[in-house]
Specification:
about 550 residues; alpha+beta; 8-stranded antiparallel sheet; cytoplasm; nucleotide-binding; GTPase activity
């Protein structure tokens, strides 16, 4: 592939590969639950003409039904429990938007999605400020060096002082905030935002149900219309705050934004579609296109010598990508599973043959899809930054590398020690086949783990997750997607640790173990040990000093 060779046209212009890559924007929206993340996602689709009406406002009886929340459980609860990819074009940009769960019980899915993005949009409730899950997700972004943009939402409701919200970004998260828009009024008296870049006012008009784009009229801050619309005290407060920002605020520095040191801040109301267009335009203008990824050193199957760690540029001619998510049963009619793949270099072409690095086998990528929530359409080509769905490859696992260059291998996906445990059993023997097939498919998604345990109840599978709602999701999906009921029983464990290989594990009956401690193995047959409380874990460590315990899987430790 030559970077100057024309590839296709967009609005009459010939696009080179370099131009295709430059117009990609791949990002995730992160927030604490109920800050308005999924609502904002829907409104982005509205402005991108991906939907005519945002899903959350199509009808009163379906008020909580959205494009990105496609599972039955999500629609019933009004929450996101699974990450979703939504793709659309907007003003010349090819947007890959990843809607992630906000609830802490599904945070592992969110952490994995953050490995596939180039930027993050952080949504904050203007009445609550920075909340615990927001802070946790922010730290994941910081560790990965992901640039962060901030949208302070729900300005049409009573809010905290905007200067206090700005200060909190700096004092709590250590980010230098740079307001791009500023609220005029608060709650019931909210009348619009001031655009600090273009020095104009966008006035807010509430629309019934927020079903359509909110009308916006633009004028200068000193315009009599603005003074007429605003409460005098709100107008005076806004003028004073803007003067303070001009004198004491941070100067906008695009390099600092891209380095994750500075965050552009926008204010608005997602449910009323106000400020969303300004946010989307500003984000796409200032966020970065796809960047290089790091390939790790490895012994690739069939390679004569180990490969070296190196940086893989997006302009590298050979295709490479990694699997960051697997979703089972997105199409209930076919019981298929889809691997979400982030393209890192080269060009994807349908029916191309690549190497599946973990197995060393050649694989033809014939069934590839562009994704829009649960809907999909066949895709013939994709570029770095794009997320595509590959169907029909049961051997693919989370973290796997697919590449034309066998010297490339990505190690992007974090794994976490589970925090909650439960026994899952099949109460209906006649449904055994459906139960096993459904559980196997759901476990392949990698959000939840299962372990073999020496003293398990008859017919029980030990499930482990980072939050208890994961168990409820599994039960609900087994019943709705596979027509198989299940029984869930809490397991008496608080901690799981992986055990480094040691000869004494060959005769576990000789180990000194307090009551309630149980030995088992993970899906790779690595030994694990489960403890009912802190005391039993401390006792085991004291009495068996030769055994080394780890809170991460053995393959990561090694």
């Amino acid at each position: 592939m030559t970077l100057n060779r024309p590839q296709r046209t967009l609005a009459g212009f010939v696009m080179t590969p370099a131009q295709e890559i430059a117009r990609r924007r791949t990002f995730a929206i992160i927030s604490h639950p109920d800050a308005g993340k999924t609502t904002l996602t829907e409104k982005f689709l509205l402005y991108g003409n991906a939907v005519h009406l945002a899903g959350s406002v199509t009808a009163r009886k379906n008020q909580r039904s959205t494009t990105s929340d496609w599972m039955a459980l999500e629609r019933q609860r009004g929450i996101s429990v699974s990450s979703t990819v939504l793709q659309f074009d907007y003003r010349g940009h090819a947007v890959n938007l990843l809607d992630t769960p906000g609830h802490k019980d599904f945070s592992e899915d969110t952490y994995r999605v953050l490995t596939a993005v180039d930027a993050a949009l952080m949504v904050i409730d203007a009445a609550k400020g920075i909340e615990p899950q927001t802070r946790k997700l922010f730290e994941v972004c910081r560790r990965r060096g992901v640039p962060i943009f901030t949208f302070i939402n729900k300005c049409d409701r009573p809010t905290l002082d905007p200067l206090a919200l700005i200060d909190e970004l700096e004092s709590v998260l250590g980010l230098a905030p740079v307001p791009v828009t500023w609220p005029l009024g608060n709650g019931p008296s909210f009348r619009g935002v001031y655009d600090l870049r273009h020095k104009d006012v966008h006035l807010f008009e509430r629309t019934p149900g927020g079903a359509f784009r909110s009308p916006e009229s633009v004028s200068d801050l000193s315009d009599p219309i603005v003074k007429e619309k605003l409460d005098p005290d709100d107008y005076a407060a806004a003028v004073e705050q803007l003067e303070m920002l001009e004198g004491a605020g941070h100067a906008f520095d695009l390099a600092a934004v891209h380095a994750g040191q500075q965050t552009p801040v926008f204010f608005g109301s997602a449910v009323n579609n106000f400020g969303v267009d300004l946010l989307l335009q500003g984000f796409l203008h200032d966020s970065i296109p796809p960047t290089s990824r790091n390939s790790v050193a490895m012994n690739s199957p069939g390679m004569p010598a180990p490969t070296d760690a190196r940086e893989v540029s997006v302009t590298h001619e050979k295709f490479s990508a990694f699997v960051f998510k697997i979703q089972a049963n997105m199409d209930p009619k076919h019981r298929d599973r889809i691997a979400f793949v982030r393209v890192c270099s080269g060009k994807f072409s349908r029916d191309m043959v690549v190497t599946h690095q973990r197995t060393g086998k050649s694989v033809r990528l014939s069934s590839a899809h562009k994704l829009f929530g649960q809907d999909r359409e066949t895709v013939d080509e994709a570029w770095p930054g794009d997320v595509i769905g590959l169907v029909g490859h049961d051997a693919f696992g989370i973290g796997d590398t697919l590449t034309e260059d066998r010297t490339i291998a990505y190690d992007e996906i974090p794994r976490f020690a589970p925090e909650v445990f439960a026994w899952l059993t099949n109460p209906t023997p006649a449904d055994a086949k459906k139960y096993r097939a459904g559980l196997e498919q759901l476990l392949l998604e990698g959000v939840m783990q299962s372990f073999e345990v020496r003293h398990a109840p008859p017919g029980a599978t030990l499930l482990a997750a980072v939050g208890p709602l994961q168990f409820e999701v599994v039960q609900a999906r087994l019943e709705t997607e596979y027509n198989a009921k299940s029984r869930l029983t809490p397991a008496p464990f608080e901690h799981l640790r992986w055990i480094a290989p040691h000869p004494s594990l060959d005769t576990p009956e000789n180990l000194l173990m307090p009551g309630g401690v149980n030995l088992g193995s993970d899906k790779f047959d690595h030994p694990v040990i489960l403890f009912p409380n802190d005391w039993t874990m401390d006792y085991f460590v004291e009495k068996n000093p030769d055994l080394k315990l780890h809170d991460q899987p053995i393959e990561l430790v090694e």
